[in-house]
Specification:
mainly alpha; 102 residues; 3 helices
């Protein structure tokens, strides 16, 4: 059986890579992918803690499934916003979004 620490190490790496990518990138698609990494790291934590701390219960798995559904909806809305911004200004950089105010 795989130890809990290994799952948590992978989750921590995904979380901090996502945070770094979100802070350092200026492209909205790259920021969205980084945000997805952060949310997936959280969902891994829900599943791992449920399995190792409360194996007879399913709350962590239900939170994980709910999180996946929320992530899918959030991604669809974010991609729609990114497509709309690209059609308006022809660019998806965050620094150029001030042109949308005009």
């Amino acid at each position: 059986m795989i130890k809990m620490e290994y799952y948590l190490i992978i989750s921590i790496l995904m979380f901090f890579i996502g945070i770094y990518g979100f802070i350092s990138r200026r492209n909205m698609l790259a920021m969205l992918i980084s945000l997805e990494l952060v949310l997936n790291a959280v969902e891994i934590n829900f599943a791992v803690f449920n399995r190792y701390l409360f194996p007879e219960r399913m709350e962590g798995l239900f939170f994980t499934l709910f999180g996946i559904a929320i992530t899918a909806a959030e991604t669809a809305v974010a991609i729609a916003i990114i497509i709309n911004a690209y059609r308006s200004i022809g660019n998806v950089n965050v620094t150029k979004l001030n042109k949308l105010k005009d």
